[in-house]
Each structure stands twice: as structure tokens, then as C-alpha cells.
Model the fold of this input.
Amino acid sequence: MLLDPLSFRMLRTIALQYNPDQLSRTLQVQSAGGDSGGRSEPLRLKGPPVETFKIEADIDATDQLEHPDAYGGTGDAAQVGIFPQLCALEALITPASSALTRAERFLSAGSLEIAPAEAPLALFVWSKQRVVPVRVTEFSVIEEAFDTELNPLRARVTLGLRTLTVNDLPFGHRGAALFMAYLKNKESLAGRAIAGSLNTLGLTELP
Done:
């Protein structure tokens, strides 16, 4: 899901054709003393962990070719294969042509400093429990089948995503509010986990 970076209105929802079979997730601890820690503050955390996701998504034009009426009857798959789906995903990491043209006009007019184009705020939605503001850090495509005009008909897309936290966004930012809601929901879910006891660990008391 993409939100406008200024107004935060929804610009586009990109739904994967199939649910990926696997989601890889990594959390890098943000210790106050660095990777080695520090004796004076071994238990302190300077912020939420750096969370990254990695997924592999399959895109296939077979259903659209066999049942075009089920997809609006546009016949896009027969004309351009899965190029539309691939281009929609690539837009996550590509500045709009209008933004590049505008930057060039400013440069030609003699502006000395041009702010990089700001991308939409991307939200990774993986069930109701996981609605996370993210930045795309990795994008690769393997195209596996083509029609007679070399339009891709099947592809596998690998996406790497990094969660944007309050370390990345100011507290008043909409993305920061979404991260805090995500964090609070995880805290609520953790409270529903079945608690253990000393007996389950084979202890009657701490040494």
C-alpha cells in the first residue's frame, strides 16, 4: 500500500497474486553499548530493533490469459503479459518521471541544491496484525516465460523490506504513528502468550 508522503492519502494498493509460502524476518538488536555491549549499561536498548523482511512473490499470467473476463476483460495479459504488475512493483523504488523532469528544470534554472524526490510512504500489510511502514532495500526479478513478442508471462520477485521506526521518522509523522500502533499490537499479542513457570524449567526456586 502506498501513501502520499505529504497528505498521507492512499495512492495505490499493490496486492500480490499469490500468498508467498515463506516470510523471512530478521531483527537486529539496538544495544546501547553497541554489538559488544557495555559493562555500565548491558541491558539498555537505544531503540527498537532493526526489523527486515524478505519475501519471494510469484506472478503468473496463466489465469488472466485463460479467463480475461474475470480480470475486467481488458486483455492486458495477452497484449503485454505481466509487465503492468512488474512495473507497479518497480515504482516502489523508482522516482516518477515528472519528479525527474521537475528536478532537471530546477537544475537548468541555476538552482544549486536539489532535494531528492520523496517516494510515497510504503506500508507492508501481512494480515491485520502486521501493518508496517517500510522502505524497500532489495528488489530482484527472475522472468521465466515469455510470449512470442517477449512479454514476460511468469516471474519471481524477491523483495527486501526494512521497517521504518521512530528512529527513522519523527513522532509527529504518520509513519511513526503506524509503527507505534504495530509495536503496541505486538505488546498486546505478547501478553496473550501462555506464561511458563519455574516448574516448567525444572526449578523450584532461583539459585
Notes: The first strand starts at residue 2 and ends at 3. Residues 16 and 127 are 13 Å apart (CA to CA). The beta strands are 2-3, 10-12, 23-28, 50-60, 121-125, 131-146, 152-163. Residues 2-192 form one domain.
